[in-house]
Amino acid sequence: MSTIEVKPEGYNYVFSPYLKPAATVKPGDEVIVYTDDAFESRIKTKDDLPAKALATAKFLNPQTGPIYIEGAEPGDTLVVKIHNIEFTRDYAVSCFIEYFGGLTSTPTTRFLQEPLEEKVWIWTLIDNGQYLYNDEIRVKIPVKPFFGTFAVAPELEAISALTPGPFGGNMDVPDVKVGNIIYLPVYNPGALFYIGDCHAAQGQGELCGVACEITAKATLTFEIIKGKSIEWPRIESPEKIMTVGSARPMEDAARIAYVELINWLFDEYGFTKAEAYELLTQVGGLYVGNMVDTTYSLVASIDKKYLKRS
C-alpha cells in the first residue's frame, strides 16, 4: 500500500469524463486529498460580501480531481472509505447570497420581491476544534465535518459541480463523513473521482444554501466491487444503510431514495420487494440533505438491526 498526496494547484468546476486525472491510485492506497472551500477562499471576513468577493469568480464549488482508480471499469461499484477529515484553517464561513437559498426567491422560483440582504457569518473553531462560535449569534455549535460534494464522472456529460445526481455530486448529505462508506456507480474507466465542498457543520436541508464552509484535507481509501452496478449513491455507517436520491420536486427525490433502498434490501438481504416496502413503511428513515441545489437530495435509511431476520 502506498500513500499518495493530492494537493492540486488548480481545481475543476465540473464532473467530467474528459479532464486529465489529478492523480492515479490503486485500490487500498492511502490517498490524502486537499480541498478548497466552496468560494475559493475568497470570503475571509464579514466585510467580504458575496457580490463583491465573488464578482470575478466565474464558477463556484471547486473540486479536487478527477482521481483515476486503477481497475475500475463501467458497471463496477466504487467503494470509498473516509478515514479522516482535517481542517486546514481555523474558521468557517457562511453567508446570505442574493436570490439563493431555501427561503428566498431564486432564479428558478421567482417572485416580485427584493433579494435578501447579503450578510457574511464567520464561525470560529474553539475548544480544540470541537465547536464553532459566531460572535453575533453567540451560540456554539458542535463540529460535524463532512464533504458536501463526492462524485464520479458521469458517462458522457460534463455537469456543473453545483449539481447532485446518480453520480453523487453536490449532495450536501451530512452522512458523507468519517467512519462511513460511500458507494458510487462507475461509468468510466478509472471511475474518475471528485471531492470538495467540505462543511464543518450543516443542518439538514442546508437551509440558506451555505453551510459552514471550510478548507480541508481528507484521508481516503478506494476499493472496487467488480461487475456490480448500482444506480444511485449508497452510504453505509456502523448502524445504518442509506441511499441518496436527487431530483425536483422533492417527493421524487424521496421516491428515488426509497426505491433504491428497497432494491438494496431485495438484492442483498433476502427480502422480497413487498416485504421491504412494508418494513420501510414502519421503520424507515428519511431526511433532506439539501433543499437549495439544482436538484434536491434526500436520504432514505434503515437501522441494521432490522436487517437480521428471526
Describe the structure.
The protein is mostly beta strands. It has a single domain, classed as Acetamidase/Formamidase-like domains (Jelly Rolls). The chain contains three helices and 21 strands. The protein has helices spanning about 50-55, 250-270, 275-285; strands at about 5, 15, 25, 30-35, 65-70, 75-85, 90-95, 120-125, 130-135, 140, 145-150, 160, 165, 170, 180-185, 195-200, 215-225, 235, 240-245, 285-290, 295-305. The protein has a nine-stranded mixed beta sheet. The protein has a six-stranded mixed beta sheet with strand order 3-5-16-11-14-13, with no helix packed on it. Strand 8 and strand 9 form a beta hairpin. Helix 2 (about 250-270) packs across helix 3.
